Amino acid sequence: MATKKTGNNKNQKNILIVIFSVVAIWSYWNYLLKPVNNDIKSLRSQLLKKQQQLETTRQAAMECYILEAEYKILQLEAAELEKKLPFKKDMPKLISDITKSLDKNRISIQTFTPGPEVTKTYFSEMPISLQVRGSYHNLATFLAEIGQYERIINTYDLNIMPVAPTKFSSDTISASLKLVTYIGK
Questions:
Q1: CA R_g for the chain
Q2: What is the pLDDT of residue 141?
Q3: Which of 71-87 are b and which e, b meaning 16 or more Cβ less than 10 Å from the residue's Cβ?
Q4: In the chain, which ranges are E strands?
Q5: Which of 13, 57, 104, 127 is deepest in the core (most CB within 10 A)?
Q6: Lowest-confidence segment of 45-49, 101-105, 146-150 by average pLDDT
Q7: How far is CA 133 from CA 140, 166, 175, in A?
Q8: Of 181, 62, 83, nearest to 129 (Cα)?
């Protein structure tokens, strides 16, 4: 009989060990492992969101650098265009440049008459009427030279007439022309 009791006690001990093990495993899972796994999932999700935000910020920063570079290029282009189409008259410099070119090309000025400003939609025109004397070659060189100025200067109404050279002058032509430069608005 004693063996039956000891066998019963062993079964009860085994059952208690199994129950205790199940309760311990369930407690470990429910109170330790499950919350830690939930925290890990939550942190991974937050990490993924932060990485996406970081990538978006990096792309925006790269676009910012690209836009800054494009802005600097546009500023340089605008400065170059402003030389061609300035926003101020600066007539003294223009008159000085034209008269220097005329003198350099040995063309004598008969009349130099700045005209009234003509307002257009996006710019204004500043006409200058000229009467000059010189050689055909020198006049062509002068016109080519002013065509190369940074500032836009167009030539209109060019009329050339021959003149007889004298012992005081080697001029072979007399020309009347209109130069027009532009001012931006």
A1: 46
A2: 93
A3: eeeeeeeeeeeeeeebe
A4: 108-114, 118-119, 123-134, 153-162, 173-184
A5: 127
A6: 146-150
A7: 12, 13, 6
A8: 181
Alpha-carbon torsion (49, 53, 54, 58), positive or negative: positive
> Hey, what amino acid is at 96?
S
- Give the span between the Cα atoms of 55 and 108, in whole angstroms: 70
Both tokens assigned to 167: 């012992």
Name the band, by pLDDT with cuts 50, 70 and 90, for residue 7. low
Q: Tens of pLDDT along 153-176?
A: 889 999 999 988 777 777 889 999
Length of the chain: 185
Whole-model pTM: value is 0.58
Strands (E), 64-122: 108-114, 118-119
Both tokens of 84, joined, read 């061609």
CATH-assigned architecture of domain 91-184: 2-Layer Sandwich (3.30)
